[in-house]
Design a protein that fits this description.
This protein is an all-alpha fold. Helices cover about 55% and strands about 0% of the residues. Helix 2 crosses helix 3, helix 3 packs across helix 8 and helix 4 packs antiparallel against helix 8. The longest helix has about 30 residues. The protein starts with a helix and ends with a helix.
Length: about 230
């Protein structure tokens, strides 16, 4: 009788052990097969706030310089710039636009307007904006040389080119931002803090007059001598 009980006990222990082992394998199998949830990273586009921070100037000019090396005409340069700006974060794209606005603001003066008038044989308000966009698109060295002395632009004159403007440059950051975020860039500019924009251009006092061409010669003597058509 005792032997029978012993055998029965051993039998139940073996069966229980097998059951536990099967359960363990089943639980382990479930753990292995359970899907791993990926952590969700909040993209910059999802947490955008209004900004007044300009893109680092060295980075800005590097992008312009690369566009000049990689393209040979204005249309291609525009497309290249949009493509390069799309590689930036949305905040940096806003910063590119703000840096452009600052450079436009810094060159809003009557001397450079005189240079634009001579080079383009006339220059409206909008034309002056697009002239300065063209100037920026020519790179850092040309920009700062012109800012110091508008007559230095004679070196940038191209034979048979009649107009020196780049309207598309004004939109490159906005287009890149729209392409990557499906949002409008201007909605994310903090105009309460960013004041160097076209809404705050100074009132200019002109010392030259198109009706008296000799007054333009006093502002930009080299450009006037070589380009002005009487």
């Amino acid at each position: 009788m005792k032997n029978t009980i012993s055998h029965l006990s051993l039998f139940f222990l073996i069966v229980s052990g097998i059951g536990l082992a099967q359960n363990s394998v089943s639980v382990l199998d479930k753990k292995i097969k359970a899907p791993i949830k990926a952590s969700i990273i909040k993209k910059d586009t999802l947490v955008l706030e209004k900004s007044s921070t300009m893109l680092d100037e060295a980075v800005y000019w590097d992008i312009i310089a690369t566009s000049l090396k990689e393209t040979s005409n204005q249309e291609d340069q525009e497309l290249f710039l949009i493509s390069e700006i799309e590689k930036l974060t949305p905040s940096e794209m806003i910063g590119f636009r703000l840096r452009t606005d600052k450079l436009l603001y810094d060159t809003y003066d009557q001397q450079l307007w005189c240079a634009a008038y001579i080079m383009n044989h006339g220059c409206s308000d909008g034309g002056f904006e697009y002239f300065r966009c063209w100037l920026i698109s020519q790179g850092k060295d040309v920009f700062y040389a012109t800012k110091a002395n508008p007559d230095s632009l004679l070196k940038e004159v191209v034979k048979d080119q009649e107009v020196y403007e780049f309207e598309g440059f004004w939109y490159v950051a906005m287009n890149a931002f729209k392409n990557t975020t499906q949002k409008e860039l201007f909605s994310y500019i903090d105009y309460e803090k960013f004041k160097t924009n076209d809404e705050n251009y100074p009132i200019l006092k002109f010392s030259w007059n198109v009706d008296e061409p000799e007054t333009m010669a006093k502002i930009c003597p080299v450009l006037y001598k070589n380009l002005w058509k009487k």
